[in-house]
Write a structure and sequence with these properties.
globular; five-stranded antiparallel β-sheet; alpha+beta
């Protein structure tokens, strides 16, 4: 039986490293995907967000412009499928792997549903799919990998080793500040809001997967 293992990360560099190690462990390119928030610093608003390869931002891990492209395309080895998209309710993202083509094919009006629908179609519960979408909206990155039952625990261990956080614990934190559920019509988080949340997470780290 095939399962989809999902990890949610606060930084693009963590997600890219997890994707790289999954591929190194023998998981196929067409089974590994990465989705990352690509909200840029205001000064970077004119940057190309999809193609050039450079080093990841080692200071904050923020997915910005060509830096995020380098982290996903270079470190994760997924440059051929890397593309930038704008998702209603989430904002700009970078996606690589098979999920990138699925999101691009959904069309601008259906992309938000495509992210959640793609996860639920793969066996993720709708509740968790909405949590994962909200995590991306708030500046995070996702790694998904299709694995058979015999290797699912191995995939989870690789993802956990690279710092994936517990999505239910994180959703509990959001709810404690008034969040009531994923809203596809919500305003995307600004760079400043993303950095504010990251500071809070560092000060009070949640349990890891």
């Amino acid at each position: 039986m095939i399962r989809t293992v999902v990890g949610s990360f606060d930084s693009i560099s963590e997600a890219a490293s997890a994707a790289r190690d999954l591929r190194a462990a023998g998981f196929m390119d067409n089974d590994v995907s990465v989705i990352a928030n690509n909200q840029q610093r205001p000064a970077d608003s004119s940057a190309d967000s999809s193609v050039e390869v450079t080093e990841p931002d080692k200071v904050s891990g923020t997915a910005t412009g060509i830096v995020a492209g380098g982290a996903l395309g270079g470190a994760a080895g997924l440059a051929a499928s890397l593309m930038g998209l704008a998702i209603p309710g989430i904002g700009p993202i970078l996606a690589a792997g098979p999920i990138a083509a699925a999101l691009a094919g959904a069309g601008a009006g259906a992309v938000a549903g495509g992210l959640i629908g793609g996860l639920t179609d793969a066996g993720v519960s709708e509740t968790h799919a909405e949590y994962y979408a909200e995590a991306v909206r708030r500046g995070g990155a996702l790694v998904t990998v299709r694995a058979d039952d015999a290797r699912a625990d191995e995939a989870e261990a690789i993802i956990r080793r690279h710092g994936a956080f517990d999505i239910e614990d994180r959703a509990t934190q959001w709810k404690s500040t008034g969040w009531t559920g994923y809203n596809p019509e919500a305003e995307p988080y600004s760079f400043e809001e993303i950095e504010r949340d990251r500071t809070q997470y560092r000060a009070s780290p949640d349990m890891r997967r």
